[in-house]
Amino acid sequence: MVPCRRKSLSGPVSWKTFSEVFLAKFFPDTTKTEMEQKFINLEQADKTINEYAAKVSKLSRFAPYMVSIEGIGSGDFSKG
Q: What is the pLDDT of residue 70?
């Protein structure tokens, strides 16, 4: 039997705290890096606009520092 290393919480947990702890435990840095690289290398190729936009939306969360509404609107979105 594996010992439980559960921490006691003194009150409600914010979404930010929950998501940070959850991602740190169940989503390794290597996977984050891999998804970030997929975002960087993303090309539209034979995808429809809607398929490409969905992929951009899905993968952009792994590189939020690279995404801005202005960037998407100014043509960066259409390079792939």
A: 59
Residues in the chain, overall count: 80
pTM greater than the 0.90 cutoff: no
With a CB cutoff of 8 Å and minimum separation 6, the contacts of 66 are: 39, 40, 60
Q: Which two tokens stand for residue 59?
A: 């993968």
Distances 72 to 43, 45, 49, 68, 78 between C-alpha atoms, Å: 14, 18, 13, 6, 8
- Range of 6-10, 30-34, 50-54 with top mean pLDDT: 50-54
Domain presence at residue 34: yes
| Domain count along the chain | 1
Does residue 14 lie within any of the structural domains? no
